[in-house]
């Protein structure tokens, strides 16, 4: 299972790199727009430095034609780094670009996926990751759970190297459902990550543990403080 963060916000990335072992970062033009008119290439390089060389950075090509996608892909690899997974929409033109680039051994994520058919075509083109838009699918009355389950089953039957990178989540339960039904990777915004780790019940349990400890060993006491007192004896 791979957990990625869907953001280009430097502060959020620095925060969660210290919290969990992030498998990587995903970005797209809409996410980049939230950061304002940034120095795009240097910003992506900074993200790479923060997450390290082993984590996966996904950056989206911009365009509508096969040639535009391919040109952007090579610019991304040249200006940022060669190990980036370039995201290309699973349209007819996009699939043509994915096929070409995968034949050259490049790292590619098929994005903008709403249907099983798109996913199977992306698999046939050799895409490393297939990124379905979970919440957007639900808003269009598409059964996102069935999609993930069926595509995951097909990946297993084919012994395919493609992975489902589920995206577009609005809440924690959507993330749970994607993982539960076979998504090998999920990417979520910092808001969803914060909601999942910041439940009031979790915080209350932590406060209760601290209160119970202090009721026995004194306010402000900790295990380390207790050990220090023992060492002084």
Automatic annotation (TrEMBL):
User: Where on the tree of life does the source sit, at the highest rank?
Assistant: Bacteria
UniProt cross-references to Pfam families, sorted A to Z: TAL_FSA
What GO terms describe the biological role, i.e. biological process, of this protein?
Answer: carbohydrate metabolic process
GO CC annotation terms, alphabetical: cytoplasm
The record's keywords, sorted A to Z, are:
Schiff base
* GO molecular function terms noted in the UniProt entry: aldehyde-lyase activity
Q: Where in the cell is it found?
A: Cytoplasm
Q: What is this protein called?
A: Fructose-6-phosphate aldolase
């Amino acid at each position: 299972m791979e957990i990625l963060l869907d953001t280009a916000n430097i502060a959020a990335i620095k925060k969660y790199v210290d919290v969990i072992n992030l498998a990587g970062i995903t970005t797209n033009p809409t996410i980049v727009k939230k950061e304002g008119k940034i120095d795009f290439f240097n910003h992506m390089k900074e993200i790479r430095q923060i997450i390290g060389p082993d984590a996966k950075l996904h950056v989206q090509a911009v365009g509508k034609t096969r040639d535009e996608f391919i040109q952007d892909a090579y610019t991304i690899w040249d200006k940022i780094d060669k190990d980036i997974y370039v995201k290309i929409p699973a349209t007819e033109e996009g699939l043509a670009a994915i096929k070409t680039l995968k034949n050259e051994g490049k790292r590619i994520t098929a994005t903008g996926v709403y249907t099983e058919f798109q996913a199977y075509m992306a698999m046939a083109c050799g895409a490393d990751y297939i990124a379905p838009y979970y919440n957007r699918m639900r808003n269009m009355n598409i059964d996102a759970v069935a999609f993930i389950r069926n595509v995951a089953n097909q990946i297993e039957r084919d012994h395919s190297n493609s992975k489902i990178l589920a995206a577009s989540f609005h809440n924690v339960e959507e993330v749970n459902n994607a993982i539960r039904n076979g998504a090998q990777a999920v990417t979520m915004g910092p808001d969803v990550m914060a909601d999942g780790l910041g439940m009031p019940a979790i915080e209350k349990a932590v406060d209760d543990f601290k209160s119970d400890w202090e009721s026995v060993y004194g306010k402000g006491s900790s295990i380390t403080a207790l050990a220090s007192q023992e060492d002084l004896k």
